[in-house]
Amino acid sequence: MEEGSADIALIGLAVMGQNLILNMNDNGFVVCAFNRTVEKVERFLQNEAKGTKIIGAKSLEDMVSKLKRPKRVMLLVKAGSAVDAFIEKLVPLLQPGDIIIDGGNSEYRDSNRRSKELKNQGILFVGSGVSGGEDGARYGPSLMPGGSEEAWPHIKDIFQKISAKVGNEPCCDWVGDEGAGHFVKMVHNGIEYGDMQLICEAYQLMKDTLGMTPDEISNVMEKWNKGELESFLIEITRDILAFKDTDGSFLVEKIRDSAGQKGTGKWTAISALEYGIPVTLIGESVFARCLSALKNERVEASKKLVGPSNLKYQGDKEEFIGHIQKALYASKIISYAQGFMLMREAAKEFGWKLNYGSIALMWRGGCIIRSVFLGNIKSAFDKNPDLQNLLLDNFFSEAIQKSQESWRKTVSAAVTLGVPTPAFSSALAFYDGYRLERLPANLIQAQRDYFGAHTYELLTSPGTWHHTNWTGHGGSVSSSTYQA
């Protein structure tokens, strides 16, 4: 097949696709645009892409003919069957060594499968997380590519040039094999759920127990954004809270309190259960959205179920705001520690070599969870690439130590005043569980052995399994062991 002039083709002209194409064009790459509805290509070329070097294609054959070798095709279509359908149509048009990139929010197991299937056909597959929303796509997203590593030298220049930068460092690096890029993106989205829920809990505490107005809380967010909590989500929360509707009232207070979700937070929680990693804060954040969605039931319940009679915080207002700030910071550390625990377990499971420091750097800019905090995570893994848990790094253990008293006071006050703080509370419970040498699981093991002869180990001889005839009339036969 004759070689064309385009550096890369992009299929899917929704907002993200269009913005990525314009970003690539700005960075000096010739992009061929294609969409299943071909009229959309024409519209894009006549409007947003007018006066650029972007070219269009009328069919997949036409698109492939316009590409330089190795031919690079990026998909930005709905995750699931649409990705498989395009791959099926593309394979006969490509040659060994050509590259298919899936830039959608695909499930990582799909990327594992596609990577293997395409490898057998000589095609290099890349599954890449793309974060930063429309604005990120246009001016610099965080990119998390994984899959066939042989593809990386051929896409590195494009990906690193279009990605966000922190200093001169691109927020994009090779993540790992198969679905590693999409797994890391999934964890990113789970952490995003956690960060958003934590900020909402801080907001509700200030609103309900201190009686603060949205603009007062916005001013607090403004202050927080100048310190250790500086991040994209705190910044946009500050702006949202200060935003007024056309009638002069605060828009945020008119929005129905029933949250939606697209599933990636849920996938993170499911993976946590699957691999036995206690990613409790993200799990609670997903459940908090599920609970919010029961709006009609909650309206009914609010008429019948009573909470504490006093809903107002009685102590010093400024001091309590300081406690909430520290509770938010400490809980956020727990959320990231849990996310990295999950990535470590997946790496073990699939044999991926993940570079945790560079993942933190990829998240420093362009993406939704970007924050100054990620620089500290990068430093922790630079100091010790084999760090078992972020909480064991001196910076983070000291930060938790300094925040701990405020964190406990915040959760205690929330419980006493009847304000739900599932993310603050589960983060603290995890911390207390993780730092204790002994937990009550010895009693669980005894119970399991009593009713099901599931056996137990002794502290003095781990690895050797014992069964006790607890009642005197049970047998001495034990059941086989299994991992819960």
From TrEMBL:
<dbReference type="GO" id="GO:0006098">
    <property type="term" value="P:pentose-phosphate shunt"/>
</dbReference>
<comment type="pathway">
    <text>Carbohydrate degradation; pentose phosphate pathway; D-ribulose 5-phosphate from D-glucose 6-phosphate (oxidative stage): step 3/3.</text>
</comment>
<dbReference type="InterPro" id="IPR006115">
    <property type="entry name" value="6PGDH_NADP-bd"/>
</dbReference>
<dbReference type="GO" id="GO:0050661">
    <property type="term" value="F:NADP binding"/>
</dbReference>
<dbReference type="InterPro" id="IPR008927">
    <property type="entry name" value="6-PGluconate_DH-like_C_sf"/>
</dbReference>
<comment type="function">
    <text>Catalyzes the oxidative decarboxylation of 6-phosphogluconate to ribulose 5-phosphate and CO(2), with concomitant reduction of NADP to NADPH.</text>
</comment>
<keyword id="KW-0570">Pentose shunt</keyword>
<keyword id="KW-0521">NADP</keyword>
<dbReference type="InterPro" id="IPR036291">
    <property type="entry name" value="NAD(P)-bd_dom_sf"/>
</dbReference>
<dbReference type="InterPro" id="IPR013328">
    <property type="entry name" value="6PGD_dom2"/>
</dbReference>
<dbReference type="InterPro" id="IPR006113">
    <property type="entry name" value="6PGDH_Gnd/GntZ"/>
</dbReference>
<keyword id="KW-0311">Gluconate utilization</keyword>
<dbReference type="Pfam" id="PF03446">
    <property type="entry name" value="NAD_binding_2"/>
</dbReference>
<dbReference type="GO" id="GO:0019521">
    <property type="term" value="P:D-gluconate metabolic process"/>
</dbReference>
<dbReference type="GO" id="GO:0004616">
    <property type="term" value="F:phosphogluconate dehydrogenase (decarboxylating) activity"/>
</dbReference>
<dbReference type="Pfam" id="PF00393">
    <property type="entry name" value="6PGD"/>
</dbReference>
<dbReference type="InterPro" id="IPR006183">
    <property type="entry name" value="Pgluconate_DH"/>
</dbReference>
<comment type="similarity">
    <text>Belongs to the 6-phosphogluconate dehydrogenase family.</text>
</comment>
<comment type="subunit">
    <text>Homodimer.</text>
</comment>
<keyword id="KW-0560">Oxidoreductase</keyword>
<dbReference type="InterPro" id="IPR006114">
    <property type="entry name" value="6PGDH_C"/>
</dbReference>
<dbReference type="InterPro" id="IPR006184">
    <property type="entry name" value="6PGdom_BS"/>
</dbReference>
<protein>
    <recommendedName>
        <fullName>6-phosphogluconate dehydrogenase, decarboxylating</fullName>
        <ecNumber>1.1.1.44</ecNumber>
    </recommendedName>
</protein>
